[in-house]
């Protein structure tokens, strides 16, 4: 196992590098994936599509065996320099037990995704201490906005720290406290984090800055999921909490931000909300597994790159 103090980092991409689009979770529309592939080709990358990326098997994009095969095939291929997920949805947790982490340790590659792909991030962290990228899916219904586009390109090509500034208009701004926290950024989608409790992939968050985001969850479920993490002991020694977008959550009283504030403030650590990370219109790509500085007073989250310097 690589040293916990130094995560395994892949190399940055260069024009001409080969990347692959795979669907470890939900099914996708080919035309949406082609829009994502076109964006990558614009940046000079050579794009291939996983053999089963367009399959469908009930809830998921192809059988568990086929989706896992696409992932492990990509991890084994020395020509592939990045594994980019087409979407989240549902299904990643069904295959993470079969990831060949020896391949990851032998030849670390960029892995990008978010939402349900949080299960993949957590499994790669547990099994290989791989620094990954929490960023937009490459199944694009529309062209990404300029901020999302620029942040994604920088995260793939540029091994420099990522600085995310909280947006006052984001509803989760209301959860912000004060103070500064330093620690490794881990986490992602709240529902997927809660689903790891009691599994081998439940992360050790002692000293970490925890990233949280989600979509379409009512307040009582958000309360229940954070409580589950707390009761499982995962929140005991956090350094701080970075709260991204909680998008399309049903309105009500208490609201989702109010529930988050109630649960998170009692932890007694700095909390920064309003970060444009998650399912919102603007989706900033951030590394997972690297050191971060959360400054709740300045409204910034600064994260070391997931890419190693050449």
Structure characteristics:
single chain, 310 residues, alpha/beta, 7-stranded mixed beta sheet, 6-stranded mixed beta sheet, 13 strands, globular
Give the SSE layout.
Elements: E1 18-22, H1 30-42, E2 46-49, H2 64-76, E3 80-85, H3 101-106, E4 110-113, H4 118-128, E5 132-134, H5 146-157, E6 162-165, E7 180-189, H6 190-196, E8 209-215, H7 219-231, E9 240-247, H8 256-265, E10 271-272, E11 286-288, E12 291-295, E13 300-303
Parallel strand pairs: 1-2, 1-3, 3-4, 4-5, 7-8, 8-9, 9-10
Antiparallel strand pairs: 5-11, 6-13, 7-12, 12-13
Structural class: alpha/beta
Q: Which parts are unreliable, with pLDDT below 50 for 5 consecutive residues or more?
A: none
**Assembly annotation:** single chain
What is the H-and-E element order?
EHEHEHEHEHEEHEHEHEEEE
Tell me the Rg in angstroms. 18 Å
Give the N-terminus to C-terminus distance in angstroms: 23 Å
The biggest beta sheet is recorded as: 7 strands, mixed
Physical arrangement of strands within the biggest beta sheet:
6-13-12-7-8-9-10
Write down how many β-strands occur, each being a DSSP E stretch of 2 or more residues.
Answer: 13
Shape: globular
- Secondary structure: helix percent: 25-40%
Overall residue-averaged pLDDT value: 97
Give the count of helical stretches. Answer: 8
Task: Give a quick precis of the structure.
Helices cover 27% and strands 21% of the residues.
Describe the structure.
- The chain is of the alpha/beta class and 310 residues long.
- Helices cover 27% and strands 21% of the residues.
- The chain is built from 8 helices and 13 strands.
- It has helices at residues 30-42, 64-76, 101-106, 118-128, 146-157, 190-196, 219-231, 256-265; strands spanning 18-22, 46-49, 80-85, 110-113, 132-134, 162-165, 180-189, 209-215, 240-247, 271-272, 286-288, 291-295, 300-303.
- The chain has a 7-stranded mixed beta sheet with strand order 6-13-12-7-8-9-10.
- Strand 8, helix 7 and strand 9 form a beta-alpha-beta unit.
- Helix 6 runs parallel beside helix 7 (219-231) and helix 7 (219-231) packs parallel to helix 8 (256-265).
- The longest helix is centred in the N-terminal third of the chain and has 13 residues, at 30-42.
- It is globular and about 45 Å long.
- The model has no long low-confidence stretch (mean pLDDT 97).
